[in-house]
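Good morning,

Attaching, inline, the backbone tokens for the sequence recovery test we're adding to the shared suite. The designed sequence is right after.
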């Protein structure tokens, strides 16, 4: 009976997508809570307000980075779910692990915004991205081995998805390594990687993918 339950549990891709959308929406909403409006008693002139907004710019930068991060990985998960014919219990738990990493996203940006000059904060932020990439890679690899993909998925989709995840994570790792020189170098490199994957320029597609219809 236990074996039979495991075979029939977690087969709905639609329910998995619905849960994912909800968690992504909450995580993106929580990100903005770290942007706090200045207290009234701290502002007495236009100059005071301007100085406070300039001091708030690192938090705004981290907020925009994190929105792009979640957007990129939401599209990546959506791409995978669109190619799944069905799910199973193991795949459901893999995506729950992925969503656990999504839920951690509001924490790592807040840590980085508060301690933007510290390498540890930058590495925690990068590790969050690494967890997202590893679980997404795990999901696709398992679904391929377990024959959960739709029958009409083109043969070149699998290497394109794997290549995109591996290259993206390699670039993120290189960017994170720059924190040993300066954390702002790392932030700039990570932003460049994110902008590349967010706008997907044709030049980079020629380098990173053989199929321009595959999104990560």
């Amino acid at each position: 009976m236990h074996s039979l339950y495991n075979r029939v549990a977690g087969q709905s891709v639609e329910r998995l997508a619905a849960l994912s959308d909800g968690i992504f929406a909450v995580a993106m909403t929580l990100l903005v809570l770290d942007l706090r409006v200045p207290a009234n008693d701290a502002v007495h002139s236009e100059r005071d307000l301007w100085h406070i907004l300039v001091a708030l710019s690192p938090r705004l930068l981290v907020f925009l980075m994190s929105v792009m991060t979640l957007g990129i990985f939401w599209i990546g998960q959506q791409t995978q779910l669109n190619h799944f014919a069905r799910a199973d219990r193991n795949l459901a738990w893999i995506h729950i692990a992925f969503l656990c990493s999504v839920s951690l996203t509001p924490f790592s940006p807040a840590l980085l915004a508060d301690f933007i000059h510290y390498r540890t904060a930058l590495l925690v932020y990068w590790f969050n991205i690494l967890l997202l990439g590893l679980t997404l890679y795990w999901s696709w690899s398992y679904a391929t081995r377990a024959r959960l993909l739709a029958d009409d998925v083109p043969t070149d989709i699998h290497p394109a998805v794997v290549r995109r995840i591996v290259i993206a994570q390699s670039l993120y790792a290189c960017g994170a390594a720059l924190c040993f020189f300066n954390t702002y170098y790392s932030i700039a490199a990570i932003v460049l990687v994110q902008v590349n994957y967010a706008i997907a320029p044709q030049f980079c597609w020629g380098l990173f993918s053989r199929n321009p219809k595959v999104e990560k």
